[in-house]
Every structure is written in C-alpha cells, then in structure tokens.
Amino acid sequence: MSDFDCGAPRWKRRLWVLVSSVFFQNPFPKAARFRAALLRAFGARVGKGVLFGSNVYISYPWRLTVGDHVWIGDDVGIQSLAQVTIESNVCLARRCYLSTGSHDFRREDFKLKVAPILIRQGSWIAIGSLVVAGVTIGEGAVVSAGSVVLRDVPANCLVRGNPAQIVCEIFRDPEGARASIRVSCRHVPEKPLAPSASPTRALDG
C-alpha cells in the first residue's frame, strides 16, 4: 500500500485508530449522537437518526457518507479505502462487511485495487453478508443473510447466495394517508446478476 493515498495525514489516521478503538470497536454501545459527532469530526457526512451497534469497524471515516435513519448493527465492518455511501433508511445487519478494497490477482505483487460502494435508500443488507468493491445495491433491494454480493443488485430485488443471485422482485404498495407498506414478491428462477464493468471482479480477492 506504499503508493495508496489514505486521504488523511498520518496523525489523523493514528488519532482515528485510538478514537475508534475506544468509542466504536468495543462491546459497549455508546450514545448514537456522540458517535455521529465523532465521525463528523473526522470528515464523515452523517445524517440524523443514525444508530450504531457495538464493535463497529470503520477504516477511514473521511470516506464515508451516511444518510438519515440508518441502522449499522453489531460487528459491522466498513472498509472505506474508497468512498462508501449509505443512503437514508438503510439497515446494515450485524456482521455485514462492506469492502472497497481488493487485489489484482494477475500481478505478482497483488497490487491493491479500490472502488466505491453505494447502498441506495431503503435497502436491507441482512446478517453476515459481504458487499465487495465497486458494487451498487439498488433502492429497496434486500440481500439475504450470508450472501456474497459481487455485482450490482437491481432496485427492489431480493438476492441470496454465494455469489448472490436474484430470487424475486419486490413490490411495495403504499396504502392510506400514513403509507403503510404491503410487500409481495414475484418469484423468478434464480438467475445471476447482470455482468458488471469488471468481469473478473468475482475472482478478485
């Protein structure tokens, strides 16, 4: 990583390691507003009503944007070597991992590669799922527990598996003044996600 731009001076990175270990990476949940304020102090953009579980790992907060009313569960990891954007009303369940870093297996030195991750509003990443570099999770999508997402997920789809495949399309119908939600699924034969701009992404580490 000698030629990798961390996006912040060494003193700031070292200070974040200390702050993170005390206030984020421990089994004792702290006040959500206080944690959000700490992230903002280190350059993150954090909306209102964001809740954090215990033992949350965030590598570089200055490359993190979080919308309103987001839940980041226990033991979630956000490897923000590149920009990570989490839009509003998103749930990251416990032990999810967002990894913006990979390595070029075609090179002898396994050169580091990074690409941003975008989680669109209203989506849910269920327990123990992995989202890799360069992936966009579409609006209202659901990633089933334990899935490995190697390619973009379309809006309003449920995906599962390793690698994740589309299981069904999700239909949400607002009803009444308070817009309660009725959800139904139209099941489809499991099919792979559409090819991405990087056809070798599935083989990258």
Mean pLDDT over the residues: 85
* Sequence stretches where pLDDT stays below 50 over 5 or more residues: 176-182, 198-205
**How many helical elements?**
2
Helix content: 10-25%
Outline type:
globular
The CATH architecture designation of the domain at 10-127 is 3 Solenoid
| Order of H and E elements | HHEEEEEEEEEEEEEEEEEEEE
- CA-CA gap between termini: 15 Å
Name of the top-level CATH class of the domain at 10-127? Mainly Beta
By helix and strand content, what is the structural category?
mainly beta
CATH topology of the domain at 10-127: UDP N-Acetylglucosamine Acyltransferase, domain 1
Strand order of the largest sheet: 2-5-8-13-16-18-19-20
Main beta sheet: 8 strands, mixed
* Radius of gyration over C-alpha positions, nearest whole angstrom: 18 Å
Give the percentage of residues in beta strands. 25-35%
Q: At the fourth CATH level, what is the homologous superfamily of the domain at 10-127?
A: Hexapeptide repeat proteins
